[in-house]
Structures are given as structure tokens and as C-alpha cells.
Amino acid sequence: MCVAPVTDAWHVVRTLRAMELLAVRPHSAPELAASLGVHVRTARRILKRLESEGYVTVGRNRRRRYRPTMRIVALAAQVVERADLTKAAVRHVRALCEALGEDCHLGVPSYLSVLCLVHASAHPARDCRPQLRELVPCHCTAAGKALLAWRQPWREAVLTQTLASFTERTATGPERDRGGAGGGNDEHRKEPRWLTMSRSRTAGSTRAGTRR
């Protein structure tokens, strides 16, 4: 078996980490170098290669910050549609929706948000299939709180951030419940009830819950 040199492996890892950082916010070469802990020349080489391949674009202002292109979104959509988790989840999300008469979701953590990958709609009933759907705040949605309750490292990272308030019920201060990020109700949405189905890698099982 051919083993890639360590330098090549680390270059791939650095590039992927660079894409993660750029997905959250645009970076200039010096900013990316500081975040990655590498020399500015290394960050500039990464950015130039990503730009030449069409994965990022650079602003034309003085700061010249880079941001991802829609090529990344197209790639993510292909991953979601073909992933074993999302394909297996479809029948379970659909079955929960039919049994409870409520909208049901499969969501995954996405920094300070939750990304819905499978959605079964009860009213009206629609096709349920894996696809990129809404990105919602994790600290004030039912899907986010279900995941936060079972992903302690992620929860601790989220609760160190300044979180936005969407309604008068959104808990963003010291009163937040660190065990479950404030309960399971959904303050970001206006619907009275939500059901979420979230897979926990730590627990290795699927969790479902509903709140009024």
C-alpha cells in the first residue's frame, strides 16, 4: 500500500481547514495564516490554488478577502444526497411524521447553526428526500437544542459565543441551561410545535423529541 508523505497529508488538512474558516467568514491571506498558524506565504499559496480551481473568489477591495464559491455548495449537495446517513434516515423521518402528524427533521451541527438534511412535511405532505435545506440557529431551535444536549464539546463551544436574540423568549445570557441549552422549545420559528430527529455521534443513537 502506498502511503502519502506526511507533508502532503498535512497540506490537504490545512486546505480543508482553510475552507472551513472561509465558509464561516471571508479571510485575507494574513487573516487565514493567523487562524491556521502558518506563514502568510503558505496561506497565500493555498488561497491561490483554491482560486485557480474555482473554489474561492477574491474581493477587489484593498483587503482582498477570499470567500467560497457556489462550487462548494454544489459539492455539499452531492454528498448529502448520497450519504448513507441521510439515505437511511428518510424512512425513519417519514415514519415519525406519519405517526405524529408533525413536521420531522434530520439535522446536523454546523458551527453556530443546525443544517436540515431531511425534512418530512405533514401539512401539506411532500416528498421526503435527502437535500440541503434550511440553516437555523442552534441555540433557539428545537433541532439545535436536541443536538446540543448530546454533543457536549460542541455545546461548550457554542455557549462561549455571543448569541443573537430572535424573540423575547430567546435565552442568550447567563441564565442559559448548559445541560440542554435552554430546553427544547423553538423560539426562532413561529410554529407552535416542532419535532426534531437528530443523530448523536457521541451517543451513537437517534434522538427524537417534540415540544409545544
- Unreliable residue runs: 177-184, 190-212
Overall number of domains: 2
* Mass-distribution shape: globular
Q: What topology, given as strand order, has the largest sheet?
A: 5-4-3-6-7
Radius of gyration: 20 Å
Q: Average pLDDT across residues?
A: 81
Verbal overview:
By secondary structure, this protein is α+β, with helices and mostly antiparallel strands. It contains seven helices and seven strands. It has two domains: 63 residues, Winged helix-like DNA-binding domain superfamily/Winged helix DNA-binding domain (Arc Repressor Mutant, subunit A), CATH 1.10.10; 135 residues, Beta-Lactamase. Helices cover 41% and strands 18% of the residues. Helix 2 packs across helix 3. It starts with 5 loop residues before the first helix and ends with a strand.
